[in-house]
Fold:
Amino acid sequence: MDRRTFLKNGIGFSTLVGTGTAGLSALIPHGLCAQQSQSLPYDLIAIKGGEPDVMFTKGMEALGGIGKFVKSGQRVVVKPNIGWDVSPARAGNTNPSLVTEIIKQCYSAGAKEVLVFDNTCDNWTRCYKNSGIEAAVKLAGGKIVPGNTEGYYHPVTISGGRNLKDAKVHELILEADVFINVPILKSHGGAQLTMSMKNLMGIVWDRGTWHRNDLHQCIADFATYRKPDLNILDAYSVMKTNGPRGVSEDDVVTMKSLLISTDMVTIDAAGAKLFGIDPYDIRHIRLAEEQKVGTAALGNLSIKRISL
Structure:
């Protein structure tokens, strides 16, 4: 789909015409969720032993249901990892069945539309197809949207950043009523692990800047700008080595786990422990906690553990 068709379909940035760059930055309060903060029964849900869709369903039931986050008539943006032209068995991208279930539940809560995209590393059409996510989105009635050209991205200011002071963010994020972040847990040569904060690199255009200016610091910096309303960390199949793309299925272990939290630092800390790494050994987790994005001190939190 080209940009003209994208805009014609009523999804694009045209609704913000006339706001200017300053207006765009004001649309999403820096360091705050788009949704108002709400009381939840737990800070973190940790589920193990089931299929991705079942684990998600059980986890959301423990949080009070997807209706806590998605209201009738809202536009929801779901951001999985779709970065690599590999099959689901390689665990380079988010599990397709998890994406399908998330979209279905958003619609059951009354969402007006659910849109899915990523700024991929490999060819975007092949990533969307071979990851299984394009088919998963269509199965659930969602809309798969491109993120492959700079015209989709618009400048914002990162007021809480140390190294990263600005970025270009995909217009869907700027327009979303609800933003659901759905990374996959896996190893990463530069960031050690890729989880919820690292997954946000897929909503910006100029991510090469991050690699050139201290990747860990830039990950933490951007996390101060846009906190998703909900984070769902897929750890069903986990790439333990050779991430983020992997070499073969030998890189992958089956963990059958899922984490859910509104706090990116919390969920990334839990993901690190699941992977077998002390969260404070991952520098962007330490930095994000220092910059008050969230908390990595899991012992101080209310955690619901579910075994299936």
